[in-house]
Write a structure and sequence with these properties.
Elements lengths: L4 H7 L6 H15 L1 E2 L8 H7 L1 E2 L1 H12 L6 E8 L11 E7 L5 E4 L1 H5 E4 L2 E4 L7 E3 L1 H5 L2 E3 L13 H6 L5 H5 L4 H9 L17
Parallel strand pairs: 1-2
Antiparallel strand pairs: 3-4, 3-9, 4-5, 5-8, 6-7
Length: 203
């Protein structure tokens, strides 16, 4: 059993509030942990030792680092869509972290760390896409087993989730309105924005 106190103190040096602590932990996990495609590393201690793990390991490691700092972190189990928009059969785990007593943020350190690009794992150039994610953005790709973690007034069903379009992560990076986009997607009236690699329309 590993004591994470020293690591937590090192990672969060200079942080002054829980939100800054969470940002520091998230950035460290994203930069230092790779995905385990052998699907064998599920626990925090092994994840830290091997510097890789599956989503449960990412989230347990995050939780264990936050624990000595008295920051409450809750794992969220559910399902996520792959790049092709299909829901993965094996399930997925992400996090809700408290910044105040009854308030907090959604984050996914596994997706923030990186993903498959042309069949090969690559670290993400922008891990912050999956930190402090608006509930509506998260629901386009992540469906929690417990409705309470949807964090919206009227929870959607799995069938509705399945029918939602797969977003481009640039939608969020370009500052599109999550609530409006989610409502249009849910009502099936969304005209999907398109982004091109060169930043210009290509015909």
């Amino acid at each position: 059993y590993i004591d994470y106190t020293d690591l937590a103190t090192q990672i969060t040096a200079g942080c002054t509030d829980d939100y800054q602590h969470l940002k520091a932990i998230y950035e460290w996990v994203c930069k230092n942990i790779d995905y385990d495609f052998s699907n064998s590393i599920h626990r925090a201690d092994s994840c830290l030792a091997m510097r890789k793990g599956v989503c449960q390991a990412y989230c347990e490691l995050f939780y264990r680092i936050a624990q000595p700092l008295n920051i409450r972190v809750e794992p969220i189990d559910g399902y996520a869509k792959g790049i092709d928009g299909r829901i993965g059969k094996d399930g997925h785990t992400w996090l809700f972290a408290y910044t105040q007593e009854k308030r907090g943020i959604l984050l996914d350190p596994t997706w923030g760390a990186g993903g498959l690009v042309d069949g090969r794992y690559q670290k993400s150039p922008n891990c912050w896409t999956w930190f402090n994610v608006e509930p509506e953005w998260m629901l386009l790709t992540h469906y929690p087993n417990l409705d309470v973690y949807q964090l919206i007034d009227q929870p959607i069903t799995m069938r509705q989730f399945r029918d939602l379009p797969m977003p481009n992560q640039l939608w969020r990076e370009y500052g599109l309105d999550a609530k409006k986009l989610f409502r249009l997607a849910k009502d099936n009236t969304l005209s999907l924005p398109v982004f091109y690699n060169g930043g210009e329309n290509q015909f």
